[in-house]
Amino acid sequence: MLILTCPCCGIAADETELSPGGEAHLTRHGPGSGDTDFEDYLFNRENARGVHFERWRHAHGCGKWFLAARDTVTMQVFGTYPAQTTEPPQEIRDRITKARPGWRWRDFGAAE
Amino acid sequence: MSRRLPEGGRFTDRSQRIGFTFNGRSFQGFAGDTLASALLGSNQVLMGRSFKYHRPRGVVASGVEEPNALVGLGSGDRFEPDQRATTTEIFPGLEATSQNHWPSLERDVGAINDKLARFLPAGFYYKTFLAPVSFWKHVYEPFIRRSAGLGKAPDAEARDPDTYEHFNVTTDVLVVGGGVAGLQAAKAAADSGAQVLLMEQTAHWGGRAPVDGGTIEGLDPEAWVSRTVAALEAMPNVRLRLRCMGAGIYDHGYALGYERVGDHRPEADGPRHRLWRIRAGHIVSATGALERPLSFAGNDLPGVMLASAVRDYVVNWGVAPGDRTVVVTNNDDAYRTAIALKKAGLKVPAVLDARQHGGGALMQEARELGIRVEQGWAVAKVKGGASVTGVAACLQIGSGVVMEEIACDAVAMSGGWSPVVHLWSHCGGKLRWDAEGAFFRPDPARPATGADGQPMISAAGAANGFGGLKDALEDADRAGKFACQRAGFKPAEGGVPQADLPAEAPLAPVWLMPAGAGPELRMKAWLDYQNDVKVSDVQLAAREGYQSVEHAKRYTTLGMATDQGKLSNINGLAILSDALDQPIPQTGTTTFRPPYTPISFGAISGEAKGSLFQPLRRTPMHAWHEGNGASWEPVGHWRRPYTYTQPGEDKHQAVVREINATRESLGILDASTLGKILVKGPDAGRFLDMLYTNMMSSLKVGRCRYGLMCNENGFLIDDGVVVRLSEDSFLCHTTTGGADSIHAHMEDWLQCEWWDWKVWTANLTEQYAQIAVVGPNARNLLETLGGLDLSKEALPFMGWTEGTLGGFPVRVYRISFSGELSFEIAVPANRGRELWDALIDAGRDFGITPYGTEALHVMRAEKGFIMIGDESDGSVIPQDLGLDWAISKKKDDYLGKRAQQRSNMRSPERWKLVGLETLDGSVLPDGAYALAEGQTANHQHATQGRVTSTYHSPTLGRGIAMGLVLHGPDRMGEVLEFTAEGFDPHGSDVAAVKARIVTPVLFRPRGGKAECLRSSPP
C-alpha cells in the first residue's frame, strides 16, 4: 500500500486513491513505424528490480496523471512529477544517483 | 489423566462456573478459561483428528500456533469451522464440535488411512491419480473432493447476523505484541510524546514473563507488567488494545490489526470483529517466540505437548495435562516446566536432556527439587494409542536402543525457541541464521524499508532473537527509542529496567531424536501434526529431487496446514537440509505471508455487505421503474430495467410484448445511463479524429455520427453516437459501462501524450436524463407535446435539434438503435422524471409501452447492430465485425490504426461477423462453438466460429443469432453445426444444433421505411 504525493494537487495519496498506468516515458509509434519500434512501444516493458518509472493517476482525487520514480524492491520513492514531460526532472535523477549510484533505466541513468 | 488442579490459575476465576458443550456433551469451566484449558481440565484430551491419516489429536500448544485442536464453533447462521480451542475464550452456552471424523471423534472410519500410511507417502496424490484418464471424473475427483477440506463449510444459505467494522487510524508508532518487550518498547516510544498504538493478540498483557519468572526492577514480572500497563494507560498519547492481533505489515508503514471485540461475549452490543487499517510512522514487532516440538516417534499422540504449553496450563489456568509428565528437551527452558509441575504437586518421573553435558542453574534447581535428570538421553518412542502410557528412553547419540521404559501419561517436549519473524518478513525484511540459538532471526542490516528508503519496522525482544529477560528489555527499549526517532520525535532520557533471570546453558540443536533413528522410527516422527507430514516424507521429497524448500513444502504439504508451519517450519527445513547435506541457511525458509493467523471474512468485508456493498446509481426515473414491475439488470453500478412484467406474465412474455408494441406503435426507454462526455476546445475535432476510427472533425454542427473507438492494440473498446454541438464542442455518447473508463481514456491521452492540444473534457453522464421514444408513432407523440418542429425535413435522420418540447428544455437526437423511427430526448436530470411522466401520459392513445434492456438487445440484434461486450470481447477489431465503413481511409492516424496493420490483424483467417438462423427455429446456446473437422492439439474438437449474441426474435418468430465464423461472409447459406447443451469436447457423440449462415441484418435489410443508426449502409 504505497503512498505517493500527487504533484498536481499536493495530496499524499493512499494507493487506494490511485490507479496504476504502467511504465512511464514510452514513445508512441503510430502508422508508418517499423515492426520493431511498434513492438517495443506496444509490448516490451521494463521489469525492473530496483529503480523504475511509472504512470499513476490520482483517480479518486484530482483526476490527474503523474509520474513516479521508485525502487520496486525497497519501495523507496525518489519523487513524483507531472506527466507532461518526456524525461524525469534532473532533481529526481540526482536523488536516485545519490541512493543508487550507477543506476540505469532505459536511456536514463547515472552519469558514467 | 488431565485434570483441574485444586488451586491456581492466573487467568481463571473459580467463583464463576461456565457451562458449554463439546460434541453435544455438557462441560464446565471457569471464567478466564480457553476452550482448550476447560476441556483439558475435564480430562478431554482428544480434540480432533489429523487431516490425512485421521490420527487422534490432542492439544499441543496453548496459543495461536496450535495445529491440532481446531473445532467448529456455534451453529446455524453463526457456525464457524476451524477455530482454535487454544484461543477461544469460553462463554456460557458456547457450542463446539470436533472435526475431521465420522461417525464420531472416538470411533472414526477414516482412521483406516493410518493403516495405509505406508501407501500414502509424500506427494502420493501426484503419483496415484494419473491413470487411467477415465477414472478421473468418476473415481478420483469425487474421492478427493470428499476428503478435501478441513472442518465443515457453513451452510450456503446461512447469513452471518453479526456486524463488523473497519477503523482507519494513523499513529507515529505501532507496537505489536504486549509482552514485556512490547510494553517496554511502547513506553520508551511514548515517553518522547509520540502517538503510540500497542496491540496484544491475547486477553492478557505480559506475555510469557509472568509464567517464566525472574524479576524486573526488583519486582515479580506480573507486578511490573501491571505497573507498566497502568503507566501507559495514564498517557494521553498511548492507545492499548487487547485481543487485537497485528495481522500483516504492508508497504509504506501500512498495517492491519484484527480485533476480536465480541467473540468472548457474544451477547454484548457492538461489532464482533474490527479491522484496524493503520498507517504507522514506524512499527515495532515484539511478537515473541514460539517453541519447537522435537521429532521423535509417537510425538503426535494426545498427551504429548510443548513444554511451555504444559507450564501455561498449570500456571495460567490451574490445569494439569497429566499426573506423570516426562520432560524431554535440548535446552534449559523446559526445566521451568519440570519445576512448575513439581511445585504444583505433580509427578515428573524424569527429565530427558538430549545434551551430553546437561543444563545450567535451572537443571540444578530441578535436581534439588528431587527431579531425576538424565543427560544425553532421548525419547525412542512414545508408548500408547489414543493416549500416552509411557516413553521408551534411549541415548540421543544412538539408534534408539531402549534403555528404560518410563510410565507416564503426558510428555512435555522442547526443541528450543524460534523468534516470530512473520511481521518482520511480510514486507521484505531479511533473516539471518543464528547458529547458537538454532533459529532464524531478523537481520537488522536488511529491514523492510519505507518511502524514504529507511527502516520502517524494528523487531524487539524475543521476536528479535533476544530471549533472556534482561536482553529482551534492553533490546525493546532500543527499538522503542529508535521507532519514535524515525517518527520524528526525540527519545526521552530514561534507563532500561534492570532484570534478573538465571543464566541458561546453551541449547544443542536436535532435529531428530535419537540422532540415528532408523526408518521405522522416522515414519512415526511427526513434523506437521495437522497435515501428517513426517520426517520420512521430507526425506523422501529430497530423494525425489525436491531441493528448493518452496517445492518440498508443496510436495509434502509441510507447513501448508492452517497453522502455516508455525511449529513445523524450522524442524522441517532442518531435516531437508540434512537430507540435502547442506547448511540450514542455504536451504532458507519459505515465504512468510500475511495474515499471521487467519482473520475472518467478516472483518475483511467490514460494513460492505448488503445494501452497503457498493454504491447504487439510480436514474431520475428509477422510482417509476420500481413502481411499474421492472426486474433489474445490473449494468456497472446502475440498475436498468431488464423488462417490465405485468400481472400474469413471465419475463419472456413481457419482452415479447414490449418488442411487438414498439415495432407496431410506440415504445419508450430510459437511456439515461448512456455515457455523455463533452469534448470542447479548438483542437476538439483533431482529438476526436485520433480517438475514433471515423473522421469526426468533418461532422457538421447539427449532425450526429456513429463512431468506433479502439485501443492502441487495435481492439474495439467502445461505440456510440457523437454529436457536434458547435464548432468547438462535441458530445460523445458512450456505452453505459464505458462512461467512466472512456472518459479516463480520453484524459490519459490528453494529459500524457497530447498535452499541448487545447481540448477539455467533462463527463456529463449524470447531468442529463435521456429518453428514447421509439416506433412508428414516435413523431406523432412528440408532436402532441408541441413546441419543436420534428418533421423529417426539419430534423432529418442523424440530425439533432434543441428547444422547448411541451415546456421542457430539451435536445432531441434523431437516431435509432432498433431500425424504427426513433428520437432520443435529453433533458436536465432534475426534470427527467417529469418529462418521462408527461410522455407516458401523452402516449396512452398510442399504447405507449416502456421497454427494458432485453427488448433493446433483441431489437438491435434483429437489425444486426453490434453490442460492445457481446460482439466485442477485447480481441475483436472493427474489421472482424464488417465495420470497415466506419474506419476512415483518409486519416493518417488514429488510436489502433498501426496495430490493425499487423499481419495477424489483416489475416483472412480471422473469424468474421455473420447472422445465424437455426434450421429448426430454436435459439442457439449463448457462446456455442461452430464445429469443424478434426481435432486440436489438445484432442478437442476443432472449431470454426462462435455465437456472440442469441435471442428469440418475436418480430421474425424464430431464434436469431450473430456470430463470428471463419470466412463467414463468403459462406452465406452454408449450414454449420453448433455445440449444444451437454456437449463434451472430448467425447465422440456430438450434441449439435444446425444453423445457416445469413446476413446479420435480419429485420428490414434494405432500410425500409425507417432508417437505421448507421449513417452509411454496411
Automatic annotation (TrEMBL), chain A:
Keywords: Oxidoreductase. GO terms for biological process: tetrahydrofolate metabolic process. It is an enzyme of class 1 (oxidoreductase). GO terms for molecular function: sarcosine oxidase activity. Its EC number is 1.5.3.1. InterPro entries: SoxD, SoxD_sf. This is Sarcosine oxidase delta subunit.
From TrEMBL, chain B:
Belongs to the GcvT family. Residues 912-981 form the Aminomethyltransferase C-terminal domain. This is Sarcosine oxidase alpha subunit. Residues 524-605 form the SoxA A3 domain. Its EC number is 1.5.3.1. InterPro entries: 2Fe-2S-bd_N, FAD/NAD-bd_sf, FAD/NAD-binding_dom, GcvT/YgfZ/DmdA, GcvT/YgfZ_C, GcvT_C, GCVT_N, Sarcosine_oxidase_asu. It comes from Salipiger mucosus DSM 16094. NCBIfam families: soxA. GO terms for biological process: tetrahydrofolate metabolic process. One of its GO terms (molecular function) is sarcosine oxidase activity. Residues 172-424 form the FAD/NAD(P)-binding domain. Pfam families: Fer2_4 (PF13510), GCV_T (PF01571), GCV_T_C (PF08669), Pyr_redox_2 (PF07992), SO_alpha_A3 (PF17806). It is an enzyme of class 1 (oxidoreductase). The keyword Oxidoreductase applies. The keyword Nucleotide-binding does not apply. Residues 621-891 form the GCVT N-terminal domain. Keywords: Oxidoreductase.
